[in-house]
């Protein structure tokens, strides 16, 4: 039958692209590394160094995701080819919708995997530290900051990434003034670095008795999470450490002991804090990771923009500086000002479906075709 013959041609034309994708993903090297790490994880005393063992296990998970993903795509290609032959032999038109759906799913998955090969930045494969700050506007802006925090944690859950909110400051009446979340997963920083900037919300405010339309802003900082052995040395004399009692929910221990830690970096004025761990030592360790991430992000910013002010990433959380607008009323639209990508599925976006924006950004970055610069 003609339809099955057409899809058979499409699938045969797709096979070279599948093979090229495997090469672009570096699967041979990934399989060798996976074999080596799995052998190491099976050795005696592997768990004696818990931190190192956990990092190796995380890397094994990432490699399995890459290798198994390509095996699954090849398996789906073979199944679809078999479906074509079966449909031709039996002249069963009822198989066409299944074939069409499977082909579209396979090509979409290939496109997503192909985009992952664009993660060529120095820190793209690192985990990520993401900080959200409410802009001016009081309760409305603070509620918007909390909505963004939920959006990113839902995105992490959709991708089976692990995350931990390590610091937060509650809003005056609702929402949050700021929050910092650490997200762990394959190419976490490569995915989320496109989210760095000011995010604008337009909606009818639930906090306005007159139901007037409000515009709110929140800034998102995205920084790579670096290992302790990274080439970023922070000496004790370079920062001031303060301890304080944690705020918010968390039980008696969190609220009654001065386990929360704040670090102030003298040279740049960068301030980081953590209050979610049980011990002061753990909170300090997390603070150092965040400070290291901010210093690297600052270095990249200076290199890219030749900033003269080294007081940290300076984001004007106001009109005209946004990278993306989220309009709830009078119509529904989320639009990225850099790539031009847009969608009317506001509820989906706020529930973590932001891959379209991420992928559009990566494509623009690879081709240099931005809507605005």
TrEMBL record:
<comment type="function">
    <text>Peptide chain release factor 2 directs the termination of translation in response to the peptide chain termination codons UGA and UAA.</text>
</comment>
<keyword id="KW-0488">Methylation</keyword>
<dbReference type="InterPro" id="IPR005139">
    <property type="entry name" value="PCRF"/>
</dbReference>
<dbReference type="Pfam" id="PF00472">
    <property type="entry name" value="RF-1"/>
</dbReference>
<dbReference type="Pfam" id="PF03462">
    <property type="entry name" value="PCRF"/>
</dbReference>
<dbReference type="InterPro" id="IPR004374">
    <property type="entry name" value="PrfB"/>
</dbReference>
<keyword id="KW-0963">Cytoplasm</keyword>
<dbReference type="InterPro" id="IPR000352">
    <property type="entry name" value="Pep_chain_release_fac_I"/>
</dbReference>
<feature type="modified residue" description="N5-methylglutamine">
    <location>
        <position position="252"/>
    </location>
</feature>
<dbReference type="InterPro" id="IPR045853">
    <property type="entry name" value="Pep_chain_release_fac_I_sf"/>
</dbReference>
<protein>
    <recommendedName>
        <fullName>Peptide chain release factor 2</fullName>
    </recommendedName>
</protein>
<dbReference type="GO" id="GO:0005737">
    <property type="term" value="C:cytoplasm"/>
</dbReference>
<comment type="similarity">
    <text>Belongs to the prokaryotic/mitochondrial release factor family.</text>
</comment>
<feature type="domain" description="Prokaryotic-type class I peptide chain release factors">
    <location>
        <begin position="245"/>
        <end position="261"/>
    </location>
</feature>
<keyword id="KW-0648">Protein biosynthesis</keyword>
<dbReference type="GO" id="GO:0016149">
    <property type="term" value="F:translation release factor activity, codon specific"/>
</dbReference>
């Amino acid at each position: 039958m003609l339809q099955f013959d057409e899809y058979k041609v499409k699938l045969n034309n797709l096979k070279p692209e599948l093979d090229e994708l495997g090469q672009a993903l570096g699967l041979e090297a990934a399989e060798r590394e996976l074999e080596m790490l799995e052998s190491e994880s099976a050795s005696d005393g592997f768990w004696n160094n818990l931190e190192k063992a956990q990092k190796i296990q995380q890397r094994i998970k990432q490699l399995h995701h890459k290798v198994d993903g390509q095996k699954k795509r090849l398996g789906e290609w073979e199944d679809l080819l078999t479906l074509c032959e079966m449909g031709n032999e039996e002249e069963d038109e009822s198989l066409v919708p299944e074939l069409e759906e499977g082909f579209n799913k396979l090509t979409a998955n290939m496109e997503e995997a192909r985009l992952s090969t664009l993660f060529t930045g120095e820190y793209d494969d690192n985990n990520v530290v993401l900080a959200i700050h409410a802009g001016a506007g009081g309760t409305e802006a603070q509620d918007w900051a909390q909505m963004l925090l939920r959006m990113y944690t839902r995105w992490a859950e959709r991708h089976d990434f692990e995350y931990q909110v390590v610091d937060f400051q509650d809003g005056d009446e609702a929402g949050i003034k700021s929050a910092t979340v650490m997200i762990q997963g394959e190419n976490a920083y490569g995915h989320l670095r496109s989210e760095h900037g000011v995010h604008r919300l337009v909606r009818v405010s639930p906090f306005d008795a007159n139901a007037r339309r409000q515009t709110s802003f929140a800034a998102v900082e995205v920084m790579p999470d670096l290992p302790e052995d990274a080439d970023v040395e922070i000496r004790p004399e370079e920062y001031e450490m303060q301890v304080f009692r944690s705020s918010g929910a968390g039980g008696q221990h969190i609220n009654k002991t001065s386990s929360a830690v704040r670090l102030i970096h003298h040279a740049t004025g960068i301030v980081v804090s953590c209050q979610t761990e049980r011990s002061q030592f753990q909170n300090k360790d997390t603070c150092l990771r965040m400070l290291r991430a901010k210093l690297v992000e600052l270095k990249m910013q200076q290199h890219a923009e030749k900033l003269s002010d080294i007081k940290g990433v300076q984001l004007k959380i106001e009109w005209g500086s946004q990278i993306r607008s989220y309009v709830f009323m009078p119509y529904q639209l989320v639009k990225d000002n850099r790539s031009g990508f847009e969608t009317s599925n506001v509820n989906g976006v706020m529930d973590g479906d932001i891959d379209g924006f991420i992928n559009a950004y990566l494509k623009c970055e690879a081709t240099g075709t931005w809507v605005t610069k």
